[in-house]
């Protein structure tokens, strides 16, 4: 039930305790031991916000919040107790009613919800995979390289392919971004394998969750109640807490600034809130604190549900203005310290000893302090929580199936989409590189064969030229020998032709003899005459 000014929580100190709509985005805390009535309180707040047209997101850790989709029944075991309490607090408007519900499930069994690896980001993924600072740094480098190279990281296959790609380029990336070792990448790959075994494959992919589908109303103007099935998810507590933190971050980044609206744009209930802070590194705690502090201005109210209020870090707890504290049990000194700490967070009321009352509260009773219209906390009051209008307990599988078939989102997220992203692009690049290498090897082999063939051809050519030269030389020698033989034969024939006959020889011989004889006579006469002339000249001169 919702009053005009806020959600009716219960009656305490004779007054109706109202969670003011204008202060609902100042966040809140519901705490108390197991079995003290936290779930009914949570369920009543969800009903009140939905009835006022405020969409709600709530994690259903035990599975019983699915009953919000169905009206309660007079035959239920809790009916008599609820009827008695309604009469006790004067809740005359109480009646059973259902709420418009959409189911979501990270494992895809009860209403798929997905996001992409890129949207989750390296910080939350590092927390999800329990990476140390060095490994987180390498993962951040992988994201940066993917953004730079235009590679979409949509699912875990894309991230695995991107990490393998970074390992192959480790030397290059180390020079640019710092040390990227293959050993570190291998460690991240093993953590990724563990995430797959926890069901991460169902969560990462497309179609990714559209925040607008969470912030919706039905045809009666009631805010849609988005219920995350977290009963199985609790077996993977880091996946659970990381998803909810991612969702808060997406809301913060997506929604516009609205300041303090008349009503919240969305109320977010985080059950088992201690899981968000367990073993969280300082960087993550800083991010949580930042989101919780700033998301108020986006019109989103965040309500943490946990057993012990000390589970919430002081930097976050200090921002929770609306508080409902159910009973705590003081069995140990640590429990007593927690009770004192819880009591001190309330605005004092002279008529209520908060520290004592916390241990005395009955089931369905709580200490309540809510922000008033002027923003100040109301004095703490011991309050009887109103009975709820919807079913206390889970819906049946058949009822859940009918609700899923008739909700506003229909089958929008039922079928996963696997579009071209980093894995496909890197596989294609690897195939192209392999083909190029194979082509280069084939070209090199062909070049080697061509070179070998050319060498053989050259050897054959040289051998052929050598044989041809040898043959030419032999032919030349034969020609020259033939010419010499022909010359000799011609000379011989000429000589034979020039030689005189026997008769001619005899005539020539006779002629030579006669000539010789005549010559000798002539020479003798001439010589004698010459000598007489010379001697005569000599003697006449005397």
Question: What is the element layout, followed by pairings?
Answer:
Elements lengths: L5 E7 L2 E6 L7 E4 L6 H14 L4 E5 L18 H11 L11 E4 L12 H12 L4 H16 L7 H13 L1 H8 L4 H16 L2 H4 L21 E5 L7 H18 L11 E6 L2 H4 L4 H13 L5 E7 L7 H4 L4 E4 L7 H12 L9 H7 L4 E5 L11 E5 L11 H10 L15 H77 L3 H39 L2
Parallel strand pairs: 3-8, 3-9, 4-6, 4-7, 5-6, 7-8
Antiparallel strand pairs: 1-2, 1-11, 9-10, 10-11
Helix pairs in contact: 3-4, 3-9, 4-5, 4-7, 5-7, 5-16, 9-11, 13-14
Question: Quick recap of the structure?
Answer:
The chain has 542 residues and is α/β, with parallel strands linked by helices. The chain has 17 helices and eleven strands.
Notes on the structure:
The chain is of the alpha/beta class and 542 residues long. 51% of the residues lie in helices and 11% in strands. It has an 11-stranded mixed β-sheet. It starts with 5 loop residues before the first strand and ends with a helix.
């Amino acid at each position: 039930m919702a009053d005009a000014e806020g959600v009716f929580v219960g009656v305490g100190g004779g007054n109706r305790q109202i969670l003011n709509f204008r202060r609902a985005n100042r966040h809140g805390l519901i705490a108390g031991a197991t079995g003290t009535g936290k779930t009914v309180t949570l369920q009543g707040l969800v009903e009140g916000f939905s009835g006022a047209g405020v969409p709600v997101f709530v994690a259903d850790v035990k599975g019983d919040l699915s009953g919000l989709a169905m009206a309660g029944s007079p035959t239920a075991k809790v009916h008599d107790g609820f009827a008695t309490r309604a009469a006790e607090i004067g809740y005359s408007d109480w009646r059973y009613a259902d709420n418009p519900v959409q189911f979501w499930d990270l494992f895809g069994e009860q209403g798929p919800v997905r996001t992409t690896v890129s949207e989750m980001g390296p910080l939350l993924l590092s927390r999800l995979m329990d990476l140390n600072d060095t490994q987180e740094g390498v993962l951040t480098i992988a994201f940066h390289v993917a953004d730079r190279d235009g590679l979409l990281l949509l699912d875990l296959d894309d991230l695995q392919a991107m990490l393998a790609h970074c390992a192959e380029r480790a030397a290059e990336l180390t020079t640019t971004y710092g040390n990227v070792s293959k050993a570190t990448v291998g460690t991240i790959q093993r953590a990724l394998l563990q995430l797959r075994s926890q069901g991460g494959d169902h969560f990462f992919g497309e179609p990714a969750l559209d925040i607008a589908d969470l912030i919706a109303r039905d045809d009666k103007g009631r805010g849609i109640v988005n219920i995350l099935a977290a009963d199985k998810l609790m077996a993977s507590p880091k996946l659970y807490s990381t998803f909810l933190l991612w969702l808060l971050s997406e809301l913060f980044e997506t929604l516009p600034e609205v300041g303090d609206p008349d009503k919240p744009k969305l109320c977010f209930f985080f059950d088992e809130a201690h899981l968000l802070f367990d073993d969280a590194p300082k960087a993550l705690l800083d991010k949580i604190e930042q989101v919780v502090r700033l998301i108020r201005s986006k019109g989103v109210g965040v309500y943490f549900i946990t057993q012990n209020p000390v589970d919430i870090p002081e930097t976050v707890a200090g921002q929770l203005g609306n508080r409902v504290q159910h009973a705590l049990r003081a069995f140990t000194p640590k429990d007593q310290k927690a009770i004192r700490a819880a009591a001190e967070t309330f605005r004092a009321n002279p008529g209520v000893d908060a520290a004592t009352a916390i241990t005395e509260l009955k089931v369905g009773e709580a200490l309540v302090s809510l922000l008033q219209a002027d923003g100040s906390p109301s004095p703490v009051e011991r309050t009887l929580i109103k009975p709820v209008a919807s079913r206390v307990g889970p819906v049946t599988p058949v009822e859940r199936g009918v609700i899923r078939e008739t909700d506003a989102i229909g089958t929008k997220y039922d079928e996963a989409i696997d579009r071209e992203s980093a894995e496909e692009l890197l596989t294609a690049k690897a195939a192209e590189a392999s083909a190029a290498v194979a082509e280069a090897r084939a070209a090199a082999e062909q070049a080697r064969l061509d070179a070998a063939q050319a060498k053989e051809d050259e050897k054959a050519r040289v051998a052929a030229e050598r044989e041809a030269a040898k043959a030419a030389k032999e032919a030349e020698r034969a020609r020259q020998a033939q010419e010499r033989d022909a010359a000799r034969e011609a000379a011989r024939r000429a000589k034979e032709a020039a030689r005189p006959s026997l008769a001619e020889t005899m005539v020539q011989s006779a002629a030579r003899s006669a000539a010789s004889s005549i010559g000798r006579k002539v020479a003798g006469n001439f010589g004698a005459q010459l000598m007489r002339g010379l001697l005569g000249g000599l003697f006449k001169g005397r």
